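Suppose a colleague, Dr. K., hands you the sequence of a protein chain of 194 amino acids and asks what its three-dimensional shape might be. Before reaching for any lab equipment, you can write down a predicted structure in token form. Begin with the sequence itself:
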Amino acid sequence: MNKYIKCYLVVLLSFSLLMLAACEPSNTNAQVTNKIDVQTFNSKFSLLKENFKPEGYVEVTEDWNIRNIVPAINDEPKESLDQFHDNNKTLVYKNEKNGVVIMLGVAPGPEGDFQWTNSVSYSPNFYNSKDENNGITKAYSDKFPNTFVNVYNFSGNGLSVSMVAMTLTSQDVDVQKLYSEFLMMLLNYLNKKS
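The predicted structure, expressed as tokens, is then:
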């Protein structure tokens, strides 16, 4: 097995262990009720936006009220989409020194301890490799983005959070370490506010 792949797997395993320590495991999926306490959610979001200041990062949305919209699924009622739109907010953090951009999608979620929903990671060095000893070569093309992307989804304390972290591979940084450090700062902040 190639040295790069071994290193990547060790980092991935280490990162996974860190994440398991940060969140309470659960055998059931907590469901958010149809009634959302909009005032409580907006208060939690405002506190996050105003008080979460991770070292080395600048939150850039300022007074912009950024919300994400999604296409209707299976003829969903318009009211359902309106509620989603009003309660799905975005924060964007940039680290100019390391070229890292982190987006947080925040929506109402279940109460209780934070629990992992899922995560996914894309490394162009592995998933778009020129060399089969370093990763997957099927459908290799230099047209695919040369960007590391990690997505983490978790919920608890009345919030559902999606974190998307990305940076170019040309940056001379330990991407997984930067992503996990930001995530740990975020989880520590959210756990203190519980």
